[in-house]
Amino acid sequence: MALHVYNSLTRQKEKFEPIHAPHVGLYVCGPTVYSEPHVGNLRTFCSFDMIYRYLTYSGYKVRYVRNITDAGHLTNERGEGVNRMEAAAKLESIEPMEIVQKYTVSFHRIMDAFNTIPPTIEPTATGHIIEQIEMIETLLKNGFAYEVNGSIYFDVKKYNAEHGYGALSGRNIDELIAGYRDLDGQDEKRNSIDFALWKKASPEHIMQWNSPWGKGFPGWHLECSAMSTKYLGETFDIHGGGMDLKFPHHECEIAQNVGSCNHGGAKYWLHTNMLNFNGQKMSKSLGNSILPMEFVNGNHPLLDKGYAPSVLRFLFLQSHYSAELDINIKGLQDAEKGLQKLMNAYEFLKGGKLADSKVITLENEKNRNPLLQNLADIELNKLCDDCEKFMNDDFNTPMVIANLFEISSKVHAIKNNQIPAANYFRATFEKMEKTLEDYLFDVFGLKNENTNAGNNKLDDALQVLIQLRKEAKAKRDFATSDAIRNQLVEKGIQLKDEKDGTVSWSTI
Ligand code: AMP
Ligand code: ZN
């Protein structure tokens, strides 16, 4: 099955057909760098990282543009006029661009810690003032914008009459006009729903630029239209962002694009859903936001301990990107165990290890029971092949993970002689290894971070101790087996006897 994506614009799943295959243009709204991103923001960026990784894995050549909003929004969530960058600057008594730099560096560190691949272009709003001014000039020329006292507004009603406004968010213009309260520029705008393209700056406003209309600064929505057009063209493939950006941000983007060049920008609009913690949307304004690094070091009253970045990524992937995700401690603990299980399975298979240990040779392949072999082998091959089918169904990562779990259960059972290795061809072992490797590392961007089966010296040494303990137990020498376990606990290592007879370890 070819890749299909859910397009928020048409509200249906559509076959993904890039405009200039094999090239794909992907634009994702990036962070506002006036404070640390929280784990909700992280979910959105990790979701698009998975999408970018899968497109690349599928053979597309992706130009991935994710902007940095560093010019300061005009409005906060409640529509009050504030410049976020300056509000933070006053609080911390430093220059706005210092805030921008501090949080941009921090954002990159977090993205790196969570193993996201950097976008291929990361343009900043302040670096594209000229392009934004040019777009405003075109909108003025085309009659979709008007000037009042050095500020420029987008004329939504006029635009709606010609092109229709609200298709993405499914909102009706009359209801919007009646109910919309955007206090910013209310004395100047023709309609409450009009939005600022350019705002005249008061003298004390630090971030301001020269323009044909005097000194001012751009409206927030404009930067994404200007930068996506510049780097991806008037029409490009995918535009992404969090669900909360659909309106007004993305709706305004479409209007600006169509108003300036008659093309709406992206062909497919992909929206990630919100992250909740303990049932409540994570947001700075609600005060329940946990910072990504707090998750890693466990330094937050809502957490029981720290979790490796891959555990959080894995937890995100266990839900579809477009579904709301509520996380809690139990979910984190389960994700940690689940990820461990998959990593263990991969380590057992790696480099043909499991096949070798079970002596899967052409010779014994000939001697297998054809009936069992067919059933078992076909089942495992299907589990592997279906991963691609699920990914092609709008990046259905939870279904892929369900298959990876089934594959790993088989691996553990084969390893422990609960099912005969001779039922499978060597090629099937290789396929399982490749499937786990491709999806865990390349597509999902996970790492074997907190693993007890890593191919490292500590693990090798511990396997020796685990084996000695097993032998002591077999001889009913419980004094020795307990001493091994207890002394390891003193050194901060916990052994755990798994149901399948294996012994895992973790640091405590
Ligand atoms: P911001 O820096 O606030 O512009 O947000 C960056 C990205 O994170 C945007 O795509 C938002 O839609 C997204 N976002 C904000 N809050 C959440 C949340 N609780 N869960 C998931 N994504 C979010
Ligand atoms: Zn944007």
Description:
This protein is of the alpha/beta class and 508 residues long. The protein has 3 domains: 4-272, HUPs (Rossmann fold, 3-Layer(aba) Sandwich), CATH 3.40.50.620; 306-443, Isoleucyl-tRNA Synthetase, Domain 1 (Orthogonal Bundle), CATH 1.10.730; 454-507. The chain has helices spanning 39-57, 84-92, 96-113, 129-141, 156-163, 173-179, 220-232, 246-261, 292-297, 309-317, 329-349, 353-357, 362-366, 370-392, 397-415, 426-443, 457-474, 478-490, and strands at 4-7, 12-15, 23-28, 61-66, 145-148, 151-154, 195-200, 216-218, 235-242, 265-272, 275-277, 280-281, 325-327, 493-497, 503-507. Helix 7 (220-232) crosses helix 8 (246-261). The protein is elongated and about 90 Å long. The site of adenosine monophosphate has 17 residues, from helix 1 and strand 9.
